[in-house]
Write a structure and sequence with these properties.
This protein is α/β, with parallel strands linked by helices and 376 residues long. It has 2 domains: 75 residues, Urease, subunit C, domain 1 (Roll); 285 residues, Alpha-Beta Barrel (TIM Barrel). 31% of the residues lie in helices and 22% in strands. The strands form 3 sheets. Strands 1, 2, 3, 4, 5, 14 and 15 form a 7-stranded mixed sheet that branches. Strand 8, helix 4 and strand 9 form a beta-alpha-beta unit. The two termini are 13 Å apart. The protein binds zinc ion.
Length: 376
């Protein structure tokens, strides 16, 4: 049994507790929370300088792209970035596996306990089967040519089954509104079964995406026409969020939302990846338009980020929003756990096994660039 205390405890299902105590079993289950050190009645009290919060949930990553660290040039926009991703196969299996293992270890060291991870391959499966972290795997389908829809869908189904057969949570999801025609969107929607919890989709990551749907022009249109894309992608859709209708009333997490406007916001979950947005587009979403209870945070991959650290992402969000530390930590822990269906994670509610992070070197209750994470 452990009794942990710090300047503040952020349980996230209740307001922060000044100099509170959290009692944990040997396997990390929350047994009790005390609102003062005197009430904990323990001579085993461990007191830390900083704040204690649950383990972080990285709601959006592409672990299989970890070997692309530093390959993409910064700030050149999405189409340039997509070109870099096509270099993903210019590496040996050993290089890829090593970088996946290192990236996972980095997430563990940074206090991450669960990941919403996009998969186009089985490259990450060996590492995930070690069960160091919890993963919700989003098996990503994309392809704009109508003639290839059936092949793409059956490949996705095969990949999903490989993940499921390995004991992993896995759901087929569309990559983005501009990369999946309505017929494939419907197939994905129809494949959703009782093992699936939610769908993810990249959304409004670039202004060219909005331009494609709203004006039916721009470089995305030229790019799609060059790939023999089905015209229904842009002709039948009036904006990016139109595809949510095609997916039906499922739980959905929308990723990036860098160019979202207030009128586009729905009651779905939203995931922001601020460092990746700055890396690719030099832009951030307007954080004031989101429901803070539905906002999650992700690192995206090491192809568009120099680290996999939720704390660093929070620092950027804090500098560009009015969120207080309790709200930021809900975004980092509780909301991601709720979105991805990890019921044991996200808060210090009794009975959960959420992991415990110490955030040290804060400026009062503000995260700074010098703040650090220690897994307790
Ligand atoms: Zn992504």
């Amino acid at each position: 049994m452990r009794y942990l205390s710090a300047n503040w405890i952020f349980p996230l299902h209740i307001p922060p507790i000044k100099e509170g105590v959290i009692q944990l079993s040997d396997k990390g289950e929350v047994i009790n929370l005390f609102n003062s050190r005197r009430k904990a009645y323990s001579d085993k009290l461990e007191i830390f300088d900083g704040v204690l919060c649950p383990g972080f949930v990285n709601a959006h990553c592409h672990l299989e792209l970890s070997h692309l660290l530093g390959i993409a040039e910064k700030g050149n926009g999405f189409l340039e970035f997509a070109g870099t991703i096509r270099k993903r196969d210019d590496f040996s299996e050993i290089e890829k596996q090593n970088e996946i293992e290192k990236a996972e270890q980095q997430m563990i060291d940074n206090g991450i306990v669960a990941v919403g991870d996009i998969c186009n391959t089985t490259d990450t499966l060996i590492q995930k089967q070690k069960e160091n972290l919890k993963y919700y795997n989003f098996i990503e389908a994309f392809g704009v040519d109508e003639n290839k829809v059936n092949t793409i869908f059956s490949q996705s189904m095969e990949l999903r089954n490989k993940f499921r057969n390995a004991g992993q949570k896995a759901t087929i999801v569309p990559h983005a509104p501009y990369s999946v025609p309505p017929s494939l969107m419907r197939k994905i929607s129809n494949a959703f079964d009782n093992k699936d919890i939610l769908i993810s989709i990249h959304m409004q990551e670039t202004k060219e995406e909005n331009q494609l749907f709203e004006n039916k022009d721009g470089i995305f249109l030229d790019w799609l026409i060059g790939m023999n894309a089905n015209k229904e992608i842009w002709e039948k859709r009036i904006n990016s969020t139109y595809v949510l209708k095609e997916l039906g009333r499922k739980k959905i997490i929308l990723i990036h939302n860098t160019f979202i406007q207030k009128q586009d916001v729905t009651d779905n979950y939203y995931c922001t990846c601020p460092k990746a947005n700055l890396y690719i587009e030099k832009m951030l979403p307007d954080y004031s338009i989101f429901d803070a209870d539905k906002l999650c945070v992700g690192t995206d991959s090491l192809a568009s980020n120099n680290s996999l650290s939720i704390l660093e992402e929070l620092n950027i969000i804090q500098e560009n929003s009015n969120f207080d530390l309790n709200t930021l930590l809900k975004i980092a822990c509780k909301n991601g756990a709720n979105a991805l269906g990890f019921e044991q994670l996200g808060t210090f509610e009794k009975g959960k096994i959420p992991g415990v992070n110490l955030i040290g070197n804060l400026d009062g209750v503000k995260v700074t660039a010098e703040s650090f994470i220690q897994v307790i």
